Amino acid sequence: MNRFKLNTLMAAAFSLLVLWAVTGFVLLSRDMIDASTAPKAEAVVKVLIRTGTESAALRQIAQPFEQETGIKVQFIEVGRDSYFTAVGTQLFAGSNTFDVVLMPSTSIAQFASSKAILPLDRYIAMSGSASGEPVDIDDFLSVYRYNGSIYALPTDISTHFLYYRSDLIPKPPETWDELYEIAKTFTAGIHRNSPTRWGLVMPAVVPEEREKIFDSILWSFGGNIIGDDGQVLFDSKESIQSGEYLEKLMRESVVPGDLMSWDFARTRDALINGDVAMAAPYWNSAYPMIAQSSSPHKDHIRIALIPGVRDETGQVRRIPFQHGWTLSINASSTNQLGAWKFVEFATGKQGGMIYARNGGIPARRSILSAPEFRESRPDFALILKSLTIARSEPSLIYYPAMAEVQENALAKILTLFASPSDAFQDAAAELRNLSAHISVKVPERMGNNP
């Protein structure tokens, strides 16, 4: 194991813990405010958002919210490249420049543990003030908890699909082995007469792609990073087998050799341009973009559940990845009641319908199954089906360090620098050292079903 690298990770993790502890002490009283005695909501609520599909859809909620509540919405938009740095810096510093923050579900544990965001349970108990009806927690596909309290409600939810060219592949592959065989057939480097250059692609850049994309393969093989009991499982037999599958794709040149430079946009464009026969695992959010494109192939690009592994009974085990973009309340906000009213409206059924009509994917069963979207958003039905079997990442206060360890191990496999066994064993050792030196509870799964 690289001791210098481990020490660096440990130093970073301990620095974060010290910062969280100090910040948590300063903000302790803020998360204990009783919603029933909170000050009156101010006339403006400030919402920090990241440039992208989610923020564009959220902007459409502002006017109906203002009309219903009399509270104006001011959006503070930050670019994708600097968003996570901006959010972390301002929340940990106790900045009150925004009231509501858009964040991925993987960040909840870090900010909740430092008391930089507020638990929402008291507000949920008094819900109905903005939308005229209770929050209806049971309608959410996921809510996001830390130590038993809800700290965020989802505006948008994501999972992984298999995309395939139905004019080339009449029936989508059921298993990863079947996917591999079909991908070889449509890879020009293997079959000169292939109509596509590549049989299979998937995003593999960092951050946000490599370990999340791989998780759908890892879990389908029966592997895991960290179990529900907190045990590190990244070097288990099943985990290593999933790494060996990834290695086979690279070694046999079934996927591009520069896969680590493939991101969401490049994968989408390769489907649109007809360069690839399949993309998997790949984000569900690409489907409406492809359907609305001018590609001559768009009517042949279909979606299906991700493949899996067939067990001894003949059943296929598929476990897609899922995560959400959520809204949380800044613990340093001076307008916490106004912030809650916006969170309640934006994640509620009325706001969710507006969000869906503007290209978003709300995390509510009632909206994804609404008759209104059956023709315009056929992907909604598959999203619902996928999310019934999907899994989310563990909720850890050292999640960034865990993700970096996993990403580095996958990079070694994707570059054929190390065997899956060596890469995952080294990574597991790093993870055990991290968890042993940081006092953490058994990880909660992000996105627990209500």
Question: Overview of this structure, please?
Answer:
- The structure is a single chain.
- This protein is of the alpha+beta class.
- It folds into two domains: 3-157 and 322-395, Periplasmic binding protein-like II (D-Maltodextrin-Binding Protein, domain 2); 158-317, Periplasmic binding protein-like II (D-Maltodextrin-Binding Protein, domain 2), CATH 3.40.190.10.
- The protein has 16 helices and twelve strands.
- The chain has helices at 3-27, 53-69, 83-93, 108-113, 121-125, 176-185, 210-220, 237-251, 264-273, 286-291, 336-347, 349-357, 365-368, 379-387, 399-414, 420-437, and strands spanning 44-50, 72-78, 100-104, 144-146, 149-165, 278-283, 301-305, 309-310, 316-317, 322-329, 394-395, 444-445.
- The strands form three sheets. Strands 1, 2, 3, 4, 5, 6, 7 and 10 form an eight-stranded mixed beta sheet that branches.
- The radius of gyration is 22 Å and the shape is globular.
- The protein starts with a helix and ends in a 5-residue tail after the last strand.
- Pfam families: SBP_bac_8.
